[in-house]
Amino acid sequence: MKLTNNFSKSEFECKSGEEMPLDVLENVKLLAIQLQKIREYVGKPIRINSAYRSPDYNDNIVKGSKKSQHKLGKAADITIDTFTPDEVVSIIENMLTNEMLGGFYIGGLGSYNTFTHVDIRDKKARWNFKK
Length: 131
What we know:
The chain is of the alpha+beta class. The protein is 32% helix and 18% strand. The chain has one domain: Muramoyl-pentapeptide Carboxypeptidase, domain 2, CATH 3.30.1380.
């Protein structure tokens, strides 16, 4: 199922193979729209390393946060070729302050060693977990 010009539902599926609930799919659709805006802004493909995680997969396999936005279908861990995680964060922060980009929203933004976490939670959250 195609969600945007460049993203399909399969890219957001849980790696365990567990079915994505319909309410989660609705969140994934909203997240895909925001990721599409980032892709169009940078003009490069975005690789999704992890998006939806079932509660069991997140809590017991990944050992993710109990309050993870991934469990809601609101988060993705991404990479963009030629950009470091810190550069991706900077690009997204610039997009958020650009008044020409109406409707662009990212709530959570985190930098890790090899990827950038983006999510559409309803409040601003920022972190740097690079080692």
